[in-house]
């Protein structure tokens, strides 16, 4: 089974504002919402650059991942390191990015791996 290694950021723009993106309208998990996600890279500077290039988000990443989520699909496995990040500047290059409150987020459809990330963030716990 193919493994995919990713890094997701729960990006805060204010005390109750978070950046999310809508997945493309085709393929795996089409049209669902997620936290900004990039391929997993070896160091923090490379990760920050990836978020800037892919999303137009300049981030201050937390010192350590807040959780690790493993999710098994029928044909692949996602291994996701999850960081909490503060947006330094946000000039979104991706039209599907959206800033929402916690309450607004509860009304949107997220894939299970991202639901696990959000639950861990809210509880301050680590999940697998």
Automatic annotation (TrEMBL):
Note whether DNA damage occurs among the keywords.
yes
Q: How is the cofactor bound?
A: Binds 1 [4Fe-4S] cluster.
What protein name applies here?
Adenine DNA glycosylase
Report the InterPro entries cross-referenced here.
Answer: MIG/MutY (IPR044298), MutY_C (IPR029119), NUDIX_hydrolase-like_dom_sf (IPR015797)
Q: Does the keyword Cell wall biogenesis/degradation apply?
A: no
UniProt source species: Listeria grandensis FSL F6-0971
Q: Which CDD domains did the record assign?
A: NUDIX_DNA_Glycosylase_C-MutY (cd03431)
- Native organism taxonomy: Bacteria, Bacillati, Bacillota, Bacilli, Bacillales
The entry sums up its family as follows: Belongs to the Nth/MutY family.
């Amino acid at each position: 089974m193919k493994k995919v290694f990713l890094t997701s950021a729960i990006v805060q723009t204010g005390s109750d504002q978070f950046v999310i993106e809508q997945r493309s309208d085709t393929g795996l998990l089409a049209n669902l919402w997620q936290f900004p996600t990039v391929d997993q890279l070896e160091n923090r500077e490379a990760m920050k650059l990836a978020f800037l290039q892919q999303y137009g988000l300049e981030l201050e990443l937390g010192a350590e991942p807040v959780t690790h989520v493993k999710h098994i699909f029928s044909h692949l496995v996602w291994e996701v390191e999850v960081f909490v990040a503060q947006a330094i500047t946000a000039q979104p290059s991706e039209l599907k990015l959206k800033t929402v409150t916690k309450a607004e987020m509860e009304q949107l459809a997220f894939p299970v791996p991202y639901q696990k990330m959000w639950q861990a963030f809210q509880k301050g716990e680590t999940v697998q």
